[in-house]
Amino acid sequence: MYKSVSEVCADANGQEIRNHGIFAYPVACYLDDMNVVNVISHWHDELELISVTEGKIIVGAGQTQKILRRGDGCFINANVIHDVRRVDSEIGILHSIVFHPRIIGSRADIFWLKFLQPLIENKQKQFIFFDGQNDSETVALIEKAWQAQAAEIFGYEFDVRNFLSQIIRELSEGSHGKAYLLTPAEIRDNERVKKMIFFIEKHFAEDISLEQIAQASAISKSEAHRCFKRVTGLPAVQFLIKYRILLAAERLRSTKLNVSDIAASCGFLDMSYFSKAFREIFNVTPTDYRENLEMI
Known about the structure:
Layout: E1 27-33, E2 39-42, E3 47-61, E4 64-69, E5 73-76, E6 82-86, E7 92-99, H1 110-120, E8 127-130, H2 136-151, H3 156-173, E9 178-180, H4 184-203, H5 210-215, H6 221-232, H7 236-254, H8 259-265, H9 271-282, H10 286-295
Antiparallel strand pairs: 1-7, 2-6, 3-4, 3-5, 3-6, 3-7, 5-8, 8-9
Helix pairs in contact: 1-3, 2-3, 4-6, 7-8, 7-9
């Protein structure tokens, strides 16, 4: 039920193309344990809602970094680069529900024209934080939608659409949550980083350089370094390494390939360097990581 880095696939514009749900019902829910997975910077044209069920996490959207604790939640608008990670070594578990706006309304109806389109195009509502105390009703709606989607009891589609519609209405009213504004400079950086992330996703297994990554967005190496760090919190080369490690972790979880083959498939030809880089993120070796999963 968790989403992982290997499932974030992009098209020629760097946009995620993985389907969340099916075309006729474009809704999917995920459970992410930050001690097991990391959700690296990506974006999609669906809307996303998150609620923290245990511990605390950091959600990055654009250049905004926000710590969410148990009972908190957030909304991430369409096409906003975002990531989720744990706070140091603390526990962090979240529920997320990703849905295409058409589950609520199509481009020809009042729901799109009056509520969805203005929300999606509103640069002041790209990332909205829900405080667990002041916005508990909104976070409760996120949980209700998530639980209904996860349970899949007959007719759950009606319930999910109803809960999501209530949340969209609240977001449109602006009566709940704290919105964070993306500045023109942040929007520009986001577009640059989208192109560079797409290049990394396409060529991660190859021996690629910072210069090649920068060329993907037609900027200098120094600007690529700074721009990437402003948006994702990591310089481009470190992002590439982390992307490879998270992809390797997903393959350790989901395949029976041996560790050396997984390392090579993710762009690591030096096993000692792979093990060192893996340990820096997960605090265990790749082999121990797989063995620990088998014990769960």
